[in-house]
Design a protein that fits this description.
- The structure is a single chain.
- The protein folds into 2 domains: 2-168, no CATH class; 171-255.
- The two termini are 34 Å apart.
- Strands 1-5-2-4-3 form a 5-stranded antiparallel sheet, sandwiched between helices.
- It is elongated, with a radius of gyration of 18 Å.
- It is built from 10 helices and 5 strands, in the order E-H-E-E-E-H-H-H-E-H-H-H-H-H-H.
- The protein is of the alpha+beta class.
Amino acid sequence: METAVGIFSTRRDAEAAVRDLRSRGIPQDHIQLLLPETAAIDLPVVPTDDAEQPGMGKAVGGVVGAALGASAGLGLGTAAASLLIPGVGAVTAIGLAAAALFGAGGALGGAAAGGALEEKSEQGLPKDELYLYEDALALGRSVVFVLAATDEEVRTARRALEESGAESLNAARERWWVGIREAEREHYERDGRDFGPQEHHYRRGFVAALHPDSRGRRYEEMPAHVRDRYAESLGEEAFRRGYQRGQTHARDVWVRRPAETVERA
């Protein structure tokens, strides 16, 4: 499956985009929605396994049906969960893949069906860009993504999202980097290094550390598939330094998790 993703300034715009996608024939189970608020009050939190990746552990809770009100009128079925994400806060995930991005896929449908749901939701899951979704949600934006089954479907989805006024992932990626670039440049140049020529490799290392499979792992423990993705930069010292800074950034987000998350996890 290929993925089409759009980021919207408001929930209303995101919901309008979902309706447009449905009108163009995109199947409901291919459309996923992340909203920066929950649809219910005083939702219980189901703690996840301590062994899960940092940032996706006890601060993440999933409850079956607790967020169904958020999907009313969108025609997206009944798979919804309310989550508490470190550094982001309350999030409503509508769709199996949307919930699975944050480690809550197995909580949907109960223990008996959890394995099947998790397997289904892993197909085409756009995990490489998780840090961009987190950033968007933390800023109060909403994220729509489509797990397209055919080339025609992904073209249709991308066209629909663009026409609905979505910010593209490329634009979101650059906006995110601009927001932290100056601080990273100052950090890198503290001991006399020149950031400019090495920025490309440094940035790639930083992003590699934010991959959900890399978080909490030392440089030497970086998963093979993440190493393969950044193979051209692996030999660069700037890449290693960027990776280390990315890990620090991820830990800082965990430390700044919402107080209510700590109390209820």
